[in-house]
Structure prediction request, 461 residues.
Amino acid sequence: MAGKPKLHYFNGRGRMESIRWLLAAAGVEFEEELFETREEFEKLIQGGVLMYEQVPVVEVDGMNLIETRAILRYLAAKYNLYGRNLQEQAWIDMYVEGLKDLSDMIMFLPLSLPGEKEMNLEYILERATTRFFPVYEKALRDHGQDFLVGDRLRWADVQLLEVIFMAEECKPSVLAGFPLLQEFKARISYIPTICKFLQPGSQRKPPLDEGSIETVKNIFKFERGMFLKNMGTIVAEY
Amino acid sequence: MMAAKPKLHYPNGRGRMESVRWVLAAAGVEFDEEFLETKEQLQKLQDGNHLLFQQVPMVEIDGMKLVQTRSILHYIAEKHRLFGKDLKERTLIDMYVEGTLDLLELIIMHPFLKPDDQQKEVVNMAQKAIIRYFPVFEKVLRDHGQRFLVGNQLSLADIILLQTILALEEKIPNILSAFPHLQEFTVKISNIPTIKKFLEPGSKKKPPPDDIYVRTVYNIFMP
Prediction:
């Protein structure tokens, strides 16, 4: 049968990180082919595996899966991390989409225009603590269960944990007003597969630093003001 | 007990809700709409905890208040068998839909760009459509010779692609000139009875965004 899933991306988090988290949480070993230059990326494009000439792409089960959400949904379904019925699936979808709005903002923060990073960071933290985290805190409080949906680990829990860590990297005390999320973080972090992923030596990637920001910009030819452009799309979720 | 009709909460225009209208219509599902016109109405929905993330679109359906466009589309598609027959087909549909939604996003945002940027953006949309997205779907249709994109039956992918093609044609009338299979696709899918009905005057399909719509949106959503 098929070998391990193979991930093609640059050597950093970006949009592939959620996929790494999900595979790791499911206890699935995976390989990575990480490109470092524009030339290597173009070679991948020419190889014809990228439907829309974009990454992430994950080779799995004889398919070249593209589009982050499509990849995540396939893996979640395959590894029993999705809903058991239509209603559970709807809740997981909603929770995950909300988290994506927040994680996209955090992901694009390093691409802020000079002089705007402080302001953007403040905006992210305000959104995190007033719009997003309250939703998940309430979900946990309302049903009193260990997980967001139903009684076992799902994709939404893995995604929430990932975004909690990302938000804490922006501000360590960001969970101060959210006792249930603090408990959730501790509890989910201790699940063996996830615990393993959180340890040094795993395939989890570090946040972008000055050097890797330049690499990313060169590979993907990002324009200036990428943060604002992305923000425009998110803010305009109407 | 007969289920209530789904109820859509959104301004009276296309925006992010239009895809939902398309899919419900294609599935032959009647729905009601409550149009947002003022900031106060939005505030009321938010204060009443009807919007999970304080945002619209929101669709009341089957006892839930669904938000997030993709979640809504998936729920409806899954419920009305517009999402393929197995995981592989669903994933293929998913990949096609995600690409198409990326293209549709440019159309949705267009009226809210500065006037100077709008013309440039039409060029950008046309390029993305012709170079990145249409060739993919043209090839899919050419390779399998079937009427629908996936699994020889109507799916979310066909509906969203048709929506996007028609929206682009409003701005760039000859956008399909190099894509004979997509031209045929457009005609065939448009002729499916439920979709044909949606394309006729008097349906719930919304007209292209105009200044009034843009102003309404700003009034409701700008702080």
